[in-house]
Write a structure and sequence with these properties.
The structure is a single chain. This protein is an alpha+beta fold. Helix content is 29%, strand content 35%. It contains five helices and eight strands. The longest helix has 16 residues, at 44-59. It is globular. The relative contact order is 0.16.
Length: 178
């Protein structure tokens, strides 16, 4: 059964086909994608396939992706989850995105804290990594505020719109408190 998580103001729940339009809106927004390293999503069919892939990844325990919903308000405002989840090595990478109208609300901090705690306490993860564009000041600050340590810079590691970008590589070990 897919885990539903709650924070003070938000619900993290399984993504379903009804979320396709909200995901398309978020991941076709140039402001969201500016530092994401992903091509723009272009169709509802494409998004429905991605939602199906997320479900399959969860069933195989290869990844988990939640939709972020405000308590009492239908519809997701972003996504968060783990990918590159290795049970053997007890590690996963975290990624998250919010629609721009919800930036600056503290939602990202709230959900990242919750997912980190869930990963350490419930999934057996011992190391959570994050790869962030050097230019993504907000995400870099968020991760550092939550105790992630910068391990280095990966040069020309990700491309956005055909342009190479350096990324910071971060990690948080389960012996850290957040």
């Amino acid at each position: 059964m897919f885990p539903t998580l709650k924070t003070e103001r938000l619900i993290l729940r399984e993504l379903v086909e009804d979320d396709a339009q909200a995901i398309l809106d978020c991941f076709s927004n140039v402001d969201v994608l500016r530092f994401y390293g992903q091509n723009s999503l272009t169709s509802l069919d494409q998004v429905k396939q991605i939602i199906s892939n997320f479900s399959n990844n969860y069933e195989k325990k290869a990844g988990i992706k939640w939709g972020i919903e405000r308590e009492g308000v239908d519809g997701i405002i972003g996504t968060i989850g783990f990918q590159e989840w290795s049970h053997e090595h007890k590690r996963a990478d975290i990624s998250y995105a919010l629609s721009p109208e919800h930036w600056g609300s503290g939602y990202a901090t709230e959900v990242v804290k919750k997912v980190i705690t869930y990963g350490f306490e419930n999934l057996g993860i011992k190391r959570i990594g994050a790869v962030v564009f050097v230019e993504n000041t907000s995400s870099n600050k968020l991760l550092e505020k939550l105790g992630f340590e910068k391990e280095g810079v990966l040069r020309n590691y990700m491309y956005q719109d055909g342009v190479p970008h350096n990324t910071n590589i971060y990690s948080l070990l389960d012996d850290k408190s957040i």
